[in-house]
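F.,

This is the one I mentioned.
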């Protein structure tokens, strides 16, 4: 993927997955690449159509939640491109969990019973439901690993003031509930996810992607309870299988560790899993689109003209 140069562009940021172009003071063009990251490390090879899957799932979910919280998205001029409002981001990610899975389970298995200031009950098994969803925020690191942080620490350090943080929590729980409803209609359980928020003036906006396989974990509902009783791994649609493969190959993003070799067969497997999640979650056949860089640029320029950004 090339680096574009759009009219009125005044900043460019390349993240783990997305390339973000700032246009004037009010607009962002966000291009979802085929890069894949895990443990805050970008893996060496891209995943075909991953950017398109992420962008289209995020757009679908953002459009399904506008009654809960205003969001940044204005249009999707190309399969892997989103155009939206430029917000001042909060320096926390709102992670919400419905089940004891992933990072929460690994913490619990070590014997810890507090996660981000939230007390966890004794006697839980992997993948058990919490009595109610819990919020386990993280700091947004400029580089390296995001760090767990509690509500109390966020407010005490004035990362977010108390009134606004409580509003973020309210939005987070309502968005998670909507995500679970949408997933349930498609035979899935939304297990955990994360949201990012920002402000324009005094208004809080939902930003970035939501309910995608990169930001969320889904289990298949069919057979969930049976697998839980038998302590069997859950059938899931998420990026967790990539993390599990890395862990099995002695990589967790720690100093001195080397990313294992990703052969072509494994890359195609990951791509198919992303497409499977799209089709299962959206209920439509995934239609791959391969646009040239010139066509992508043409569509973005047209979208920018539509909002009078250029």
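My design for it:
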């Amino acid at each position: 993927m090339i680096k574009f140069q759009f009219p009125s562009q005044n900043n460019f940021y390349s993240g783990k997955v997305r390339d973000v172009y700032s246009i004037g003071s009010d607009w962002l063009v966000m291009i979802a690449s085929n890069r894949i990251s895990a443990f805050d490390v970008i893996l060496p090879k891209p995943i075909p159509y991953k950017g398109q899957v992420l962008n289209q799932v995020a757009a679908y979910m953002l459009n399904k939640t506008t009654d809960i919280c205003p969001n940044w998205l204005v249009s999707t001029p190309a399969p892997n491109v989103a155009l939206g409002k430029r917000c001042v981001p909060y320096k926390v990610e709102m992670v919400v969990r419905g089940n004891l899975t992933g990072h929460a389970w690994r913490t619990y298995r070590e014997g810890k019973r507090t996660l981000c200031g939230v007390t966890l009950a004794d006697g839980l098994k992997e993948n058990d439901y919490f009595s109610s969803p819990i919020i386990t925020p993280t700091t947004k690191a400029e580089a390296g690993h995001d760090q767990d942080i509690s509500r109390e620490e966020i407010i005490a350090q004035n990362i977010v003031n108390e009134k606004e943080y409580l509003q973020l929590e309210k939005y987070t729980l309502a968005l998670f509930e909507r995500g679970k409803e949408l997933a349930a209609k498609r035979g899935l359980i939304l297990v955990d996810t994360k949201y990012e928020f920002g402000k324009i003036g005094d208004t809080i906006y939902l930003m970035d992607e939501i309910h995608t396989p990169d930001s969320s974990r889904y289990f298949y509902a069919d057979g969930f309870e049976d697998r839980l009783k038998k302590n069997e791994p859950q059938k899931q649609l998420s990026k967790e299988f990539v993390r599990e493969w890395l862990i099995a190959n002695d990589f967790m993003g720690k100093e001195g560790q080397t990313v294992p070799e990703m052969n072509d067969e494994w890359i195609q497997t990951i791509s198919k899993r992303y497409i499977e999640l799209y089709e299962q979650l959206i209920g439509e056949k995934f239609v791959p689109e391969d646009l040239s860089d010139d066509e992508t640029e043409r569509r973005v320029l047209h979208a920018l003209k539509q909002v009078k950004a250029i």
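The domain at 9-88+243-306 is CATH 3.30.200.20 (Phosphorylase Kinase; domain 1).

Talk soon.
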